[in-house]
């Protein structure tokens, strides 16, 4: 159920943190350890990992608690565990988050993890390429988002982490969710597709224009592309993660759009759409880390542009998992 080498790393982390047992529920951490639900448990099974003995699944929190060694004094629980589950455990031990052990291990992706993310990125690329042939004019954001979600499922992805369609002034809202707004000629169109393959996520975001780009949009969009290229080129082992965000911001600031730059240049991605590494000072890139680089410029009430791609930090430098064109594509009405 769990790779022996992975289990060895997990237990080394537990010992180093003074943790006697892990109790996990279905979650990204659960999936990372390749824990399979108990037959008949409807997927809501648990996993207990002690410092010795085989990792053991349980059907409910009470069963999980019974598998924790009675001498355990410090138990790490899944970060996504609900309050009712924690109370049901009834453990006479100090409870800490399992992410203290598993988050550092999840930072550096194995080759099979990268392969799954590449599949997800390629699927998103394929959907966005096919999306160029769809009839956008007159449709609503919500209808097109549903169409893209269905197309993603047709690629074999196990699900969509999210799908975004934002037209016109909505493309300048970083928190926008698809709604009944009708897509019209002259709209800038921000489209993002994030799929899952074997549990792993990859997002690809592109910008279209309907019939013709808004005035001055081309110039702004070229700045976003330049910022992303600069950020991607800086991803390599040993580089401070914050430098990637800084160099993208410097490109945007130098263009005069600094006041309208998105607060976030990127984030780590893997089993979760948002996870480490964080683009913050003190963290350094290591081979195997994966980030979604997504610089953006948002002009309130007018339009915005964001381009997103997943980048792997390789031994020799960056590797983009999505290869589709980033050029502004004008959709026919």
UniProtKB/TrEMBL annotation:
Q: What would be one Pfam family of this protein?
A: Peptidase_M24
Q: Which PANTHER family match?
A: AMINOPEPTIDASE, AMINOPEPTIDASE YPDF
Give the organism, scientific name: Microbispora bryophytorum
Could you list the residue ranges forming a coiled coil in this record?
none
List the lineage, top down. Answer: Bacteria, Bacillati, Actinomycetota, Actinomycetes, Streptosporangiales
What is the protein name stated in its UniProt record? X-Pro dipeptidase
Domain (Peptidase M24): residue spans on this chain:
116-313
């Amino acid at each position: 159920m769990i790779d022996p080498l992975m289990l060895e790393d997990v237990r080394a982390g537990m010992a180093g943190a003074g943790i006697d047992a892990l109790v996990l529920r279905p979650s990204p951490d659960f999936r990372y350890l390749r824990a399979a639900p108990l037959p008949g448990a409807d997927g809501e099974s648990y996993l207990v990992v002690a410092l010795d003995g085989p990792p053991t699944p349980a059907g409910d929190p009470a069963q999980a608690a019974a598998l924790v060694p009675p001498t355990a004094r410090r138990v790490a629980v899944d970060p996504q565990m609900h309050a009712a589950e924690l109370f049901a455990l009834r453990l006479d031990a100090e409870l800490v988050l399992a992410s203290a052990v598993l988050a550092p291990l999840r930072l550096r992706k194995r080759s099979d993890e990268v392969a799954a993310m590449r599949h997800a990125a390629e699927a998103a690329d394929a959907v966005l390429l096919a999306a160029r042939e769809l009839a956008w004019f007159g449709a609503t954001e919500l209808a097109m988002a549903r169409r893209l979600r269905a197309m993603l499922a047709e690629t074999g992805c196990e699900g969509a982490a999210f799908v975004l369609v934002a037209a016109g002034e909505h493309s300048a809202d970083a928190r926008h969710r698809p709604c009944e707004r009708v897509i019209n000629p002259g709209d800038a169109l921000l489209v993002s597709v994030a799929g899952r393959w074997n549990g792993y996520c990859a997002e690809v975001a592109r910008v279209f224009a309907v019939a013709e780009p808004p005035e001055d949009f081309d110039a702004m969009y070229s700045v976003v592309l330049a910022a992303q290229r600069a950020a991607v080129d800086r991803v390599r082992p040993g580089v401070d993660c914050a430098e990637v965000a800084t160099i993208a911001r410097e490109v945007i600031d130098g263009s005069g759009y600094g006041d309208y730059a998105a607060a976030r240049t990127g984030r780590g991605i893997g089993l979760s759409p948002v996870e480490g590494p964080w683009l913050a000072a003190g963290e350094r890139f290591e081979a195997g880390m994966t980030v979604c680089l997504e610089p953006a410029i948002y002009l309130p009430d007018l339009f915005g542009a964001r381009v997103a791609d997943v980048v792997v930090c390789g031994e020799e430098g960056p590797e983009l998992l999505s290869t589709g064109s980033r050029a502004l594509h004008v959709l026919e009405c």
